[in-house]
Amino acid sequence: TNSFASYEVKFLPNPTTGLLRYQLAVQNKGQFTIILYDLNGKMLSNKQFQHSGGNQNGEIDLMHLPSAPYQ
């Protein structure tokens, strides 16, 4: 596992009605995990992937969940 010295993550739209898009900017390569929680602290999604550094965009399908803000 690499230590990420600098990173930035944006989630759009929040609140979402289905597909939550993310924009991830990381300097280093390695495994990265995005964990989403509802406002009560319940884990809703745990997505792991390999990142090659730089910018990466993706989507997390939350269509099975109610429209709400996530953190």
What does this structure look like?
By secondary structure, the protein is mainly beta. The model has no long low-confidence stretch (mean pLDDT 79). The radius of gyration is 13 Å and the shape is elongated. It is 0% helix and 55% strand. It starts with 6 loop residues before the first strand and ends in a 10-residue tail after the last strand. Strands 1-2-5 form a 3-stranded antiparallel beta sheet, with no helix packed on it. It is built from no helices and 5 strands.
Helix and strand topology:
Blueprint: E1 7-12, E2 19-26, E3 30-37, E4 43-51, E5 54-61
Antiparallel strand pairs: 1-2, 2-5, 3-4
Concise structural overview:
The chain is an all-beta fold and 71 residues long. The protein has no helices and five strands. The protein has a three-stranded antiparallel beta sheet, with no helix packed on it. A two-stranded antiparallel sheet has the order 3-4.
Overview features:
5 strands; 55% strand; 0% helix; three-stranded antiparallel sheet; 71 residues; elongated; single chain
Would you tell me the overall average pLDDT?
Answer: 79
Helix content: under 10%
Outline: elongated
Number of helices: 0
